[in-house]
Amino acid sequence: MTTEIRQCGDCSLCCKVLGIPELEKPKDSWCPNFAAGAGCRIYEDRPPSCHNFSCRWLNDTTMGPEWKPSICKMVLDSRPRMLTVHVDPAVSRPWRAEPYYSVLKRLAAQGLMRNVIVLVIEKRRSLVVLPDREVDLGVLAPGARIAMERVMTAHGPGWQPRVMGASETER
Ligand code: SF4
Ligand code: SF4
User: Fold this and answer.
1) How far is the CA of 17 from the centre of ligand 2 (A)?
2) 48-79 burial: b if 16+ Cβ within 10 Å, else e
3) Which pTM does this prediction carry?
4) Per-residue pLDDT averaged across 86-93, rounded?
5) pLDDT digits over 126-144, tens only?
6) What ranges do the domains of the chain cover?
7) Which residues is 122 bridged to in the sheet?
8) Would you say residue 2 has pLDDT above 80?
């Protein structure tokens, strides 16, 4: 049995959609160190945020080729308590299209059982994906945290995200 080892190849979307604190590079804009066709100009000296990052598609070989960030226009960042979907702001709502939407809904349902939140960030707005709906939390302040609360809805028990810590800056 061979183990598939994935490579970034022609993808570089994380150099656009992620914020890099060491470089004061904001989220959703190309890094000044990135050169089209050449990649990172400071690769050997890139900061820890870059060196330590690998996206979900790179690590999870159960995700098909359609999930490669350069194709789906989303970078999935898997952490112990959160799966963040960073959407390329140049593309309109790719996560709502199939086959992506169904998979995110399934991951959201699995996440509720494992205490993992599925969060889409697009054009600075944060949306929590739930099995039955999405909840738009607006633009969150730095340091804001999200907690899930059990609530009673018209259709029975459900979940509602709540922003904790820093307050929201916009709705
Ligand atoms: S988004 Fe993933 S596949 Fe693309 S360059 Fe970054 S780590 Fe590599
Ligand atoms: S420093 Fe290099 S690896 Fe890091 S975001 Fe910029 S171009 Fe990408």
Assistant:
1) 11
2) eebeeeebbbbeeeebeeebbbeebbbbbbee
3) 0.94
4) 98
5) 999 999 999 999 999 988 9
6) 8-53, 54-170
7) 125
8) no
How far is residue 86's CA from residue 21's CA, in Å, rounded to a whole number? 16
CA dist., res. 31 & res. 34, Å (int): 5
CA distances from residue 79 to 35, 53, 116, 148, 150 in whole angstroms, order as listed: 28, 11, 8, 16, 22
Query: Does 8 contact ligand 1 (Cβ within 6 A)?
Result: yes
* pLDDT over 70 at 30, yes or no: yes
Give 127 Cα–ligand 2 centroid separation in angstroms.
26
DSSP code per residue over 106-161? HHHHHHHHHT-EEEEEETTEEEEE-SS-EEEEEEEPTT-EEEEEEEEETTEEEEEE
Pocket residues for ligand 2 (CB within 6 Å)?
15, 20, 31, 33-34, 40, 42, 46, 50
Whether 158 shows a pLDDT value over 50: the answer reads: yes
